[in-house]
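Researcher: Here's my situation. A collaborator sent me these components and asked whether they could plausibly form a single complex. I don't have experimental data yet, so a predicted model of the whole assembly would be a useful starting point for our discussion.
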Amino acid sequence: NAGVMQNPRHLVRRRGQEARLRCSPMKGHSHVYWYRQLPEEGLKFMVYLQKENIIDESGMPKERFSAEFPKEGPSILRIQQVVRGDSAAYFCASSPLAEVDYGYTFGSGTRLTVV
Amino acid sequence: AQTVTQSQPEMSVQEAETVTLSCTYDTSESDYYLFWYKQPPSRQMILVIRQEAYKQQNATENRFSVNFQKAAKSFSLKISDSQLGDAAMYFCAKTGANNLFFGTGTRLTVIP
C-alpha cells in the first residue's frame, strides 16, 4: 500500500500562473481532504471531496481555487492566477469512511512557492 | 467557533527525560475526537495518538500518553524516555463536522 501520494513535492510558479496539485488517495479510500499550511502555522481545512462530488468547501477561498475528484484519476487542487500569499504547503489526506473520527492518512504535501 | 490552542511554540527536553506538550480547545459538542500529530522535517504528518471524548481513560501508545481533562477542555501529550527521533513539530487537533481543527503547533527539540 503506497499511502497517500502527492505530486509534485515542490512547485514553483510565477505570479499569475496556474498551479495544479495532485493527490492519489490510499487504495480503497474514497474520501479526500485538502489542507493548507502557511509558514509557522497549523493546517487549515480547505475542502472535502468524495468521488465526483464536493461535500464541503467551506474552507476554500471563493476565487481562484477549485478542487475536483473525478471518477478515475487523482484529486486535483487548482489555483489560478497565483499570488505570493498562496505560497504554502498543501496537504492531502484520505480516509475510507466519511467520519473523521479515526483521523486521516496524510500525504507528504506539496510546497508551493510563488515568485 | 471551534479553536485549538497550543500555548507553547517551542519546548526542549533532554534525551531520556519526559516532556509534556499542552493543548486546550473550545467546543460546545459532547462527542468528539482529539489527536496529536507529529510533523518531522520531512513534512509528513504522522498520527501519534487518538482520544475519544466519551472515554474517561487516557489513551496510551508506547512512550506517548495523554492527559485528557474533558471539563477543562485540555488534552496534553506526555512523551516519556524522549529520543532524538522525537524532535519534530507536534500538532494537536480536534474533529469538526467534516474536518480537523489544528493548533499552531509546538516545536520540540531533543537535547542529546
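Model: Some features of this prediction you could bring to your collaborator: The first strand of chain A starts at residue 5 and ends at 7. Chain A has a mean pLDDT of 93.
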